[in-house]
Specification:
With 51 residues, the chain is an all-alpha fold. The chain has two helices and no strands. The chain has helices at 2-11, 21-50. The longest helix has 30 residues, at 21-50. The radius of gyration is 18 Å and the shape is flat.
Amino acid sequence: MFDKFRAIHARYRTPRIAMSPVVRRALLGLRIYLIVLVLLMLYKFVLMAGA
């Protein structure tokens, strides 16, 4: 099973399209935003579960 994951990862290791620095920053910003939202949801869940 892990051999399949390694083969897929090796195939897509290098991106097929070139991204400009602006696109890279935008994607990084979206990734950070998503992580913050997930952390806020977990925080709210912990607060509600503790009550």
